[in-house]
Amino acid sequence: MKVPNNNFKFIRTEKFDISQTEFADLLGITRGKVGSYEENRADVPVDIMQKLVKLYNTTFVPHITIDILINHDLRQGDLFSTDGNHTQPGSADLQGKNLEVRNLVITTTETGKENIEFVDAENVKASAGYLNGYADREFIANLPKFRLPFLPDNATYRAFKIKGDSMLPLPSGSIVIGEYVQDWENLKSGDTYIVISKNEGIVYKRVTNLLKQRGVLLMVSDNPAYEPYAIGALEIVEIWKAKAFIINDTYIGDSLWERLFAEIASLRAELKRLKGSNDKDDKLLN
Description:
- By secondary structure, this protein is of the alpha+beta class.
- About 40% of the residues lie in helices and about 20% in strands.
- The chain has 3 domains: about 5-85, Orthogonal Bundle (434 Repressor (Amino-terminal Domain)); about 100-245, Umud Fragment, subunit A, CATH 2.10.109.10; about 250-285.
- The protein is globular.
């Protein structure tokens, strides 16, 4: 087996310890291509090796290069000159972090039902305020709040208004209703979460859970223009699993619908062209 193919499989199975489907999602390729590289039925293209190096280096130390990926079999042991004390970000501290009791501040109605507090993460000042005040009863009490009748009463929810285009087709300005997550280690890879951390603030991403293996969450955008990145366990403040969405119709009308209509128009034009080509072929045959 070729060295890059060896390393491709080694990184997935031994370093990330995730399925072919999860690995394919991280690299923006199909599961079939992952299989073809690992089974040596196809060479690993340079652009995929570049993505693999970036992905590896967001999570592991020491870092690797494309030259290492091509020329050195990572299964043979550590190729780097180190003092032997390298650890993965957050891995040594994850157990202690999980032993902490994470007390969540909430508000309730007069009848004792929990409210859904609203956090405008699109607003920089409000987002920073939440990072500083998430454990402060007075701060949480002053947040806007509401209830949704279709959500079960046996969970705690919070609403976050997101910004940016990293999770399209969900547009900037959408509100994500998240269910509070107490058990971080058992987050389901591939699902979407609001993750609140000291360095990255409030972000909405698709998560690959590497907490048990490496002490990090890999944050993946649905928009392939954005590279995945890792957040260490000690940076994380709160995690909320996405359960519902409130979408701003005005925003969609101004942007997303226009793009969808443009795509439909393009498809119609292509179908018309193909139909014309087929009609011409039929005339020639007759």
